Amino acid sequence: MRRRDFVRSAGLATLALPFAGLASPRPARRPNILFIMADDHASQAVGCYGSRLNRTPAIDRIAREGVRFDSCFCTNGICAPSRAVILTGKHSHLNGVRDNSVAFDGSQATFPKLLRAAGYETALLGKWHLQSDPTGFDRWAILPGQGEYYNPDLIEMGRKSRRPGYVTDILTDFAADFLRSGRDASKPFLLMLHHKAPHRNWQPAERHLALFDDAVFPEPPTLRDDYATRSRAAAEQEMTIRDHMTLESDLKLGPPPERMDEAQKAAWERAYGPKREAFRKAGLAGDSLLRWKYRRYLQDYLGCVAAVDESVGRLLDVLDETGLAEDTLVVYTSDQGFFLGEHGWFDKRFMYEESLRMPLVMRFPGRIRPGSVNSDIVSNLDFAPTFLDAAGRPKPAAMQGRSFWPLLLGRRVAGWPESFYYHYYEFPAVHMAKRHFGVRTKRYKLIRFYHDVDAWELYDLEKDPLETNNVYGDPAYERVRRGLEAELRRLQAFYRDSEEQARRLVRADAGK
Length: 512
Hints:
Elements: E1 32-38, H1 57-64, E2 67-69, E3 72-73, H2 79-88, H3 92-95, H4 111-117, E4 121-127, E5 139-143, E6 153-156, E7 159-162, H5 167-181, E8 189-194, H6 232-236, H7 241-244, H8 262-282, H9 286-322, E9 328-334, H10 353-356, E10 360-363, E11 372-374, E12 378-379, H11 383-390, H12 405-408, E13 419-424, E14 436-441, E15 444-449, E16 455-460, H13 478-494, H14 499-510
Helix pairs in contact: 1-9, 5-9
């Protein structure tokens, strides 16, 4: 199939003439929604969030012309569960996807299904990672599993084919074609573009392989964290840059990926061959090896982010060119945060800030005040109700999230939640992050680790933003601790979860 065949796959739509699908110059009653989600894009690698590592001018443009959310959190910091929460507006224990091993039940209500029933044209591109086929979309083209960076396979409405090129660029081409000429002009649209990047093992596009070769990256203060006041969970994970990041694959001391063609392999060797030789000659060990690993990690991770930012810029330009910008709600986010050396780690999963926090910027000209900054607590649980609200549709009673559409429009909402509930389940598994749940408020965070560990952690984020001082046993915080424990029980009851239920799931998982 050619790329343009995506826009009329399975006979579901007739390909429009070039630019025949341009929106009316008058504001639409219901906005189009362009939802762009990266995979593992840390807020600390986004310019508008104060990044000291890189620049993201296109993503920053969305914030400059719209709103930046500073307290957007993920309910379960791992790929598939976050995606299921976004689709359903329900916590993991209710939508059925508690970890990456479970197939998503596509028969349940999702916001794309509800928008489609309300007259929206719906399309999905990129990483799906939910094992079952997508439902609720007029057309879809997804990456199998995690997908590949170079010459990836795509499954388009059930048909699999290999695409030459770099995955971020390929997905952006599909999205641009849809926006330019592949839509039904009589309908508003939902286009969900899910990038693979910057997921591990961080393979930048050819043009970005050497982009950060001369960069100097400030080290996070906790790169050499000793976890002195923390529970066993912090020390017993398997996600440190020092001990668990691989030289061959993660840090590119091995051969080029087999999937590459000869020209791509040649570019890879030009970029990484000198690094490989320099490493072998240097004989690094101990702290000097850690510093080298940290720098190499960021060079590739940020190289992947660069292509994502270019993608965002291309699509914003297409919206301008086609006259769609004024009628389109643009969303940029990530499925969760990511550790970029904080606590010595890479990956996500833990309820600590770098993993918990999701970047979220949104733009809707004429409705969202440019340059807005919102500090209210929102989460991926709230995305589905918000998009339905934007389209003038009520959320189903089963959805547990709350629409923050009024916040986007600059309104204050009485009784807006001041606490947030988190629950992570995938243990024992890759990276060995312990199972835990917890509550976060504006100032405090309480975490309960369970399964093969019995521990609590409490952080005063105002005094200890790096989360290095667990004050759970400090008598000075006894009143705070009791209040947070009560709030945790309240949230668990509200979301129909509990520690007893969590332990039942442990036993059930062990019996599989």
